[in-house]
Specification:
The protein is mostly helical. The protein contains 6 helices and no strands.
Length: 71
């Protein structure tokens, strides 16, 4: 699931299980869309701007959105 992917992705330093869970609990399924759209401002409510930008970049780099939505 998305929490595990974020927490275990080497390209997402600073975002472990706790922060990934907070993101999911707040945004739910729309989290994937926020990350895809690189909505750093929204994500930064829970993680540092730098980490939010790295998360968005990693998502695009690995092309995981479709798979995570399917799961």
């Amino acid at each position: 699931n998305i929490i595990s992917w974020i927490a275990n992705c080497e390209d997402c330093p600073g975002v472990g299980v706790t922060k990934a869970t907070k993101l999911w609990n707040h945004f739910g399924a729309s989290l994937v869309t926020l990350i895809e759209n690189s909505d750093v401002a929204a994500l930064s409510e829970f993680i540092k701007d730098e980490y939010a930008a790295l998360l968005c970049h990693a998502f695009k780099k690995h092309g995981v959105a479709g798979t995570l939505l399917w799961l």
